[in-house]
Every structure is written in C-alpha cells, then in structure tokens.
C-alpha cells in the first residue's frame, strides 16, 4: 500500500539534504547508543529488526577508494586543503563542546566526530604536510599539526565560543580575527595578574568574613564564583574607556552582596546595619531583605568617572531585566545618546532561570526593536550548574546549554571556566569590544559552582551528593590561581597573605573596600530627583489650557501637506478633529487625548506611549501615526512639537505584556519629567504582567523608596465580548492600594482624560496611574465634552448627575454602566434617583463624598457595577463608603447590584451578556 501524504511528510527528515546528518548521527548511535537523544535512539532501534548493525565507515572508505581508482584526481593537494578547511570550521563550530569550561569536571566527556582527522578524510601522515588556508591566519603556511595545535588552543581551552550560528559573515569574521592564532585573546602583565589575584581574594574574603560574623544568616554567597568580581571590574573599566558615562546593572540574589561591597563600593558598615536590622521602619516604608536592595556609585575608569547603578530586584529572578533596559533607554534619551554608547546595560542571570523564564525570551526579542533597543546588552550568566535543588541536564532544560535560548537573536555566546580568572577577564574584554562594535547583545556563560546550598542554611548533599562531594574536596578559585602564579614566580606567598590581612582589616573597620570608587563623585552625571522626592503640595497645579493656546497648538498638529494622501476613514477622523477644535462638533476621547499630549509637549514635557496597537489604537480611535497611502511612509503629527529630548514617541510593541510593562516602568522610574504610558490591547491581558505590577509598580516605593509616574491604559467594560475582553481585574489593583501608593481612575468623559493626563505630568508627585479606559464610550455621543471644558476646570474625582426631584436613592457607580443607567432613567423618566460617578477610586475621594452626602435627605444608597459581585470594586470600597455614611447618614442602607458571583469575569455569549446587563440596570432603578 502506498503511503499517505501525511506519512511521507512525517518521514521527510530521512531523505535529501538530511542524509549526511543522519549518517553521522547513526555512526554515533552505533558507537554509543546512550550518547544520542532518546527519540533518535528509539528510531534507530526500530530499524534494526533485532540485529546489530556494524559501522558504515569501512564501507564508505572502500567506496571512496573505488571512486579514486576509477576517476583520476587532478589536484589532490587542493582536495586536502578543502578537508583541512572543513576541520578548522569544525573546531570553530563545535570546539566549545570539548572545551575545558567546567570547573567541577562533571560535564560528560563528549565524542565529537567532526573534530577527528578521519572524519575529514585526513590521517596521521597528513600532520606533517603544510597547508595555506585562505581564511585561517592570513593564509599563513603551516603544518597540519601546527594548525590543529593552534585551533585547539583557541577553541577548546578555558573559553568555548559559539558564533558560527550567526548569519552575518562580518560578525563571524570579527570573532575569528579576535580569537585565532593566539594562546589567549589577550596577554596580561605580571602586575595585572597580581591585581586579578587580589580581586578574587577580596571576593572570597568577604564571604568568609560574613560567614564568621553572621553564622547561619542567608546571604546567597558567591563562593565558587569569585571570578565574577574581576570580570565585572573589567567590564566597567573597558566600557568606561570607550566613553560610557552610566552603567545600569540587574542581577538576582546570588552574589549581590559581594558585588555591592567589592565592585560598587557600598560600605561594609552599612551592610552590617542591614544584617543587624538596627533601624526603624514603618508600614509605609517596610524595606526589603539586603540581597534585594539596589545601590549606585561613581567608579573611576581610564575614560573618567562612570555612574554605576544596580537595580533593586525581588526574588522573581529575571523580572528585573526589562526594568533595567527601560532605565537604560530613558537615560539614553535624556542624554540624547543616539550612538547608545554613553549608557550601557549589564544583566546578570542565573543559569536555571535564564533558560526557563519566559521574560528572558521577551527581552531578547526587545533588543533590536525601535521602541526598546538599547544598543546591546552584556549578559553574564552566573552558571552554578544547578537550579536550587534541580539537576540541570535532566530536569532544568531540554538544551545542552542554558544559554541556547540566546541563539534566537543570533547572539554570540562565550562559555568561560570560572576557575580561570584570566579567561574570565578575557571574556569580559571581548564582550565589551563586541558590544561596542556591533551594538548587539552578547552572552557570557560564566560556568562556576555553588560551594554551599541554595542558601547558607541548606544541606546540598541531600539532593546532589556527587556534585557536592567534588565541591567539598576541591580548592577554591583563589587558591588555584595563587598556586598557579606562585609556581611561575609571579606572586610570593607573603603578598597573598597581605591581601587577605588588609582586606579583613578594612572590613573590621567597616571601610570601603572597592578598588576604584570615586571619592569625589562627579554629580553632573546624576539626575536631580529633588522636585519629585519632596514636591510642594501646598501649591496648585492647574491643568486647564487657554483657548488661544489650545487652538494654536492643535492647528499646528492637525495640518497636513497637500500632497499627503490619507486613508479615507483616517482623513475623515482628522477632518472631524478640525471641526471639534473650532467648536462645531463636541469633543470625543481621541481629540482630548491628542490635545493633552500636544499641550504637554508645548509646555516642555516629553511623552512616550507604547502598546501592541497604540499608534492606531486597538479600537481605531487614536491614529497618532498616519500612513501616506502612496508611499507607505508614517507621519507623526505631534512630532512637530518635538524639542531636543522633549519629544513625542509612540510605538507599537511586540506581543508582550510582562517585559514591555517592565521596560516602561524602568523608563518612567528613571526619567520622571514627562508622561510615560503603557497600553494593554485589552485590559484583561495585563494579568500576564502581574509580577511587574506586584513587585515594582505598587510596592517599589514601600520596599526600595523608588518613585515612578508610569501610566497604564487598560481598556475595560462589559460589552458582550467574552471573558477575556471585559475586565482588567479592577479588584486586584484595589487590593494592592495602601499609603497612596498608586492612583486608580475610571474617566468617562474626554475632558476628564485631558485633565487627568496633564495632571499626571504637571504635578511633581510621582505615583503610578492606572486608567480604566473605555471602548464603546470612545464614540458614544453621550460621552463627549465641549472645547471650553479643556480651558476650564480640572479632573473631577466624582461627577454628580442631579435628579429632577429630591432623590429617594443615590446610585454610586463607575465607568460605562453609568450611561446604561442614565439611558434607562431617561427612558423611564425616573426623577428621584441620583447618579454619582466615582471617576477616581483610589486615593478614595473621601472628602468630596462626605460633603455630598452630608446634605442629602435620603438614606437609600446603592453601589452598581457591571462586574460579578466577587470582582470589581465592591468588596474593596464597601468599607470606605460605609465609613463615610456612618459619619454623615445615620440609619443609612447600602446595598450592591452586580452580576452574580462567578469564577469567570464575563459570559461568552451576546444574549447572555445583554440579559445580565438588563437585569443590573433594572434592579438598580427599582424603588
């Protein structure tokens, strides 16, 4: 029976261009079946038919010899040169697989056929032959034995390189030029080697000092990875020498205290205070554990002072990555650093988290985009070859290396043995050169180990007995490097002991031990946060704009060249905006939003907006980037108001929430001068970024004293679009409110969003703003404003719609449901129910509601919401309403009308939606 198309497609891997790969894999199977992946082993087992096959190499060789005897060889030397070229390329491509990068020597020895002579039709006799290979050491004539010795030193020592997967031939050639033909890519003088020794001594000495002073305390030490300190020293020095003025670092807890003390210059006395917890805290400033805290300092380099900032980070490991990148982009924009060389990010990762956390993939995808590019990140993976207690190879990932995920963006990867400090410094130098040359990400896989358990109270032998048997018996990197230098007569033992003694002396006095800390910091490279740290809240910050100024500003941005051809609907939208400006049409949301941005730009406030569909707007209301229908060129009308770095930027982001929101948080928390907005495609999708919300947006001020004025646009409203297109989970945000940490607003009118956005930028109090933005209200003829509303008033926390008669009931609500209630009141001609919109839910408008309810006669109050009763605002504001009414209305009744409690936020069918919506409105108006 002939095979079906589906069967043939499933087996297509067996044929054509894959034959050579399959033959090589089959030879490995015949040599050692357990050395190949289980799925291939199972496949080859299935074709054996119960018999043991023999190697095909001898048959292949006979066949090749047969061809040689039948077909005269015109140029055997040329053929051999080609074979040598293939061998060289094999080392470039696969040398890292046998490189000595594991300080524990636990990496299973691997047979790589490509690195054998016979794989390339070469033999022992050829070792004495001389060859000149075109792309190897400038075509220098060398014996094959010399070629192999040289190429082996380059690719199989303490450094393993992966760059041959990169598509760019220029990049591959760059690495080849840097690496090949040298014993090591860089040579170090004896004083330099002595300095490297001192730095690993410093790293080890800190851990021993803390272990003795605070036995049993968690510190997530760097023991086993001490070479990280000279590695980071080198990165900072090399970047400084190339003109960098600011470096922003992110890392998780492993080794953080060592970096803070030995690299960044934090005083040990400050760390001791944190260990002793010898300070007062309060509920509004709770602080955080010491290995989460950030720090900044100025470091001296050969290129001048460099400001180095280490971001605070929670235990969510990789989540800080995008925050750091956003901070870097903000600093670059602030400096107008178009070359992206003055501000550089350095991210330190854990091996298990780098390969497993989705946000890592997201930040890699961000790296070369217009909105989020920072000119390349230097990634250092602190690879201690274990994930908490999880064995790496068996359970932590499905790839050979934890760094394999970086190949998706053609990033080069340098694997380096952490027990070889010189190799670590070499890798750091090479990484900086690459970043400077290509402005792209590079990965340093710093292969080390964890001398103790996950923390200092863990017992690692319970889960990794073989690994820790090896670790316990091995010398530290400090001892190994000292013995190496001692044997070469570079360092005497007295000098080694002096390093340790001096370090301990400084630690006992609590003095700074960092090598290159600037004692007279250049404050010109700092940003002045004073206006935002202590804002003057006694003065008012008006948001209204004079009619003359508004019209002048908007006329400018609404004007287009005559030859610019707009798409029909977009042209109509801009024509309507001109009529709105003249007062001939009421204002809609899109006009008011554009007017807010335009007037802020005119006043000198930069504006940045990102989101998956932000330029057009998910609901096609914004169109702040307009495409010429003839050329396809995009035009940003608001860019006419740009002045230097005070500019308008709006980008459609990649389909990410967590990394992009983290990026924008980092941006806003670094440059507070303007307005930074992240918009969810639908508010429901913000839950993918819950870690950023929980760990940074709502709590960073409490934990780390970090301010941010980030604004979130979350489209929210029940309109029959199903359970994933209705709710931004308002209840979650309200649950996270305390000590005026954030603002939560549900504006329902164009004038409200105009004043709210201007207030967010103009008022120097920097608090995150969560805006539940509308969908259908974007074009609802009832949800409009007048042009005069932008020139008068301010944002209103509550809006009262007075009843025609004395009210018998007051209905409190927020958002779209107000218009449904108002429609029904008008339809039924109800005259004694008063509607009160709460446009701001936090900080709760307590004073306004007290003033309003104090003079009321009625005692019947109702909260109405579209969300199910167990969601939405009800449970989080009920106590606030009750406290107000207890004070102003004795004997009141307060009830709720909402959808029935539910596990899902909304139904999936239109009929179901309309039925429930009708029930809510009807019940709310029944007296």
UniProtKB/TrEMBL annotation:
GO CC terms of this entry: cytosol; oxoglutarate dehydrogenase complex
Enzyme Commission number(s): 1.2.4.2
Domain Transketolase-like pyrimidine-binding per the UniProt entry, residue ranges: 587-780
CC cofactor: thiamine diphosphate
Keywords: Oxidoreductase, Thiamine pyrophosphate
Source domain of life: Bacteria
Molecular-function GO terms, alphabetical: oxoglutarate dehydrogenase (succinyl-transferring) activity; thiamine pyrophosphate binding
The keyword Oxidoreductase appears for this protein: yes
Matches recorded under PANTHER family: 2-OXOADIPATE DEHYDROGENASE COMPLEX COMPONENT E1 (PTHR23152:SF4), 2-OXOGLUTARATE DEHYDROGENASE (PTHR23152)
Protein's name in the database: 2-oxoglutarate dehydrogenase E1 component
């Amino acid at each position: 029976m002939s095979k079906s198309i589906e069967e043939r497609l499933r087996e297509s891997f067996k044929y054509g261009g894959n034959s050579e790969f399959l033959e090589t894999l089959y030879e490995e199977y015949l040599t050692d079946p357990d050395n190949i992946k289980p799925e291939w082993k199972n496949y080859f087992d299935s074709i054996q038919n119960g018999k043991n096959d023999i190697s095909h190499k001898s048959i292949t060789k006979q066949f090749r010899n047969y061809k040689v005897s039948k077909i005269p060889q015109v140029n055997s030397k040329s053929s051999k040169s080609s074979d040598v070229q293939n061998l060289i390329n094999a080392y470039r491509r696969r040398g890292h697989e046998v490189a000595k990068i594991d300080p524990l020597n636990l990496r299973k020895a691997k047979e790589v056929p490509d690195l054998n002579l016979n794989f390339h039709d070469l033999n022992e006799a050829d070792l004495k032959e001389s060859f000149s290979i075109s792309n190897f050491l400038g075509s220098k004539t060398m014996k094959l034995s010399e070629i192999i010795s040289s190429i082996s030193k380059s690719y199989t020592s303490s450094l393993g390189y992966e760059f041959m997967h990169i598509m760019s031939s220029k990049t591959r050639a760059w690495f080849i030029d840097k690496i090949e033909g040298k014993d090591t890519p860089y040579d170090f003088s004896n004083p330099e080697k002595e300095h490297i020794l001192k730095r690993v001594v410093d790293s080890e000495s800190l851990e021993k000092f803390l272990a003795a002073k605070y036995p049993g305390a968690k510190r997530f030490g760097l023991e086993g990875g001490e070479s990280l300190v000279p590695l980071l020293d080198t990165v900072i020095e090399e970047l400084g020498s190339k003109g960098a003025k600011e470096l922003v670092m992110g890392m998780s807890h492993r080794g953080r205290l060592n970096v803070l003390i030995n690299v960044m210059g934090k005083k040990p006395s400050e760390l001791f205070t944190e260990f002793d917890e010898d300070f007062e805290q309060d509920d509004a400033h709770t602080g955080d554990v010491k290995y989460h805290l950030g720090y900044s300092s100025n470091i001296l380099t050969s290129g001048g002072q460099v400001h180095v900032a280490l971001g605070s980070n929670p235990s969510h490991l990789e989540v800080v990555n995008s925050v750091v990148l956003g901070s870097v982009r903000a600093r670059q924009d602030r400096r107008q650093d178009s070359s992206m060389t003055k501000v550089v990010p350095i991210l330190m990762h854990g091996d298990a988290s780098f390969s497993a956390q989705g946000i890592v993939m997201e930040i890699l995808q961000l790296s070369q985009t217009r909105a989020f590019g920072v000119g390349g990140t230097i990634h250092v993976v602190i690879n201690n070859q274990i994930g908490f207690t999880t064995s790496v190879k068996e359970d932590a990932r499905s790839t050979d290396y934890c760094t394999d995920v970086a190949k998706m963006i053609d990033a080069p990867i340098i694997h380096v043995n952490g027990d070889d400090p010189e190799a670590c410094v070499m890798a750091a130098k090479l990484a900086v050169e690459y970043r400077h040359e290509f402005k792209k990400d590079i990965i340093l896989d710093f292969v080390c180990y964890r001398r103790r358990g996950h923390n200092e109270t863990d017992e690692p032998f319970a889960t990794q007995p073989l690994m820790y048997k090896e670790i316990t018996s091995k010398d530290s990197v400090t001892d190994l490097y000292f013995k190496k230098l001692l044997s070469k007569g570079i360092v005497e033992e007295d000098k080694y002991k002096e390093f340790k003694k001096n370090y301990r002396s400084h630690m006992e006095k609590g003095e700074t031990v960092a090598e290159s800390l600037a004692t007279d910091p250049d404050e010109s490279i700092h940003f002045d946060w004073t206006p935002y740290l202590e804002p003057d809240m006694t003065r008012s910050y008006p948001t209204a704009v004079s009619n003359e100024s508004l019209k002048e500003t908007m006329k400018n941005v609404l004007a287009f060249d005559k030859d610019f051809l707009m798409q029909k609907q977009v042209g109509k939208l801009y024509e309507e905006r001109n009529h709105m400006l003249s007062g001939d049409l009421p204002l809609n949301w899109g006009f008011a939003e554009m007017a807010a941005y335009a007037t802020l730009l005119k006043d000198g406030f930069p504006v940045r907006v990102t989101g998956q569909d932000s330029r057009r707007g998910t609901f096609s209301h914004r169109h702040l980037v307009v495409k010429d229908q003839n050329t396809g060129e995009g035009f940003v009308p608001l860019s006419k108001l740009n002045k230097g770095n005070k500019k308008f930027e709006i980008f459609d982001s990649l389909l990410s929430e967590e990394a992009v929101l983290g990026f924008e948080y980092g941006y806003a928390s670094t440059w507070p001068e303007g307005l930074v907005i992240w918009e969810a495609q639908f508010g429901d999708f913000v839950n993918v970024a819950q870690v950023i919300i929980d760990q940074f947006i709502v709590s960073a001020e409490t934990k780390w004293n970090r301010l941010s004025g980030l604004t979130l646009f979350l489209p929210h409203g029940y309109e029959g679009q199903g359970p994933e297109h209705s709710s931004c989970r308002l209840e979650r945000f309200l649950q996270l409110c305390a000590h005026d940490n954030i603002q939560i607003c549900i504006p329902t009118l164009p004038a409200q969003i105009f004043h709210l956005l201007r207030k967010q930028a103009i008022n120097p109090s920097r608090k995150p703003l969560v805006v539940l933005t509308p969908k259908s209200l974007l074009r609802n003829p009832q949800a409009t404003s007048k042009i005069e509303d932008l020139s008068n008033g301010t944002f209103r926390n509550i809006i009262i719609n007075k009843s025609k008669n004395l009210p018998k009931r007051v209905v409190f609500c927020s958002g779209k449901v107000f218009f449904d209630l108002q429609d029904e009141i008008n339809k039924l001609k109800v005259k004694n129910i008063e509607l009160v919109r709460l446009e701001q839910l936090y900080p709760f408008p307590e004073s306004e509601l007290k003033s309003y309810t104090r003079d009321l006669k009625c005692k019947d109050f109702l909260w109405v919401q579209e969300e199910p009763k167990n969601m939405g605002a009800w449970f989080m504001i009920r106590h606030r309403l009750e406290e107000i009414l207890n004070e102003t209305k004795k004997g009141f009744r307060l009830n709720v009308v909402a959808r029935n409690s539910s596990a899902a936020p909304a139904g999936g069918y239109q009929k179901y939606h309309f039925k429930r919506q009708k029930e809510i409105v009807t019940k709310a108006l029944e007296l």
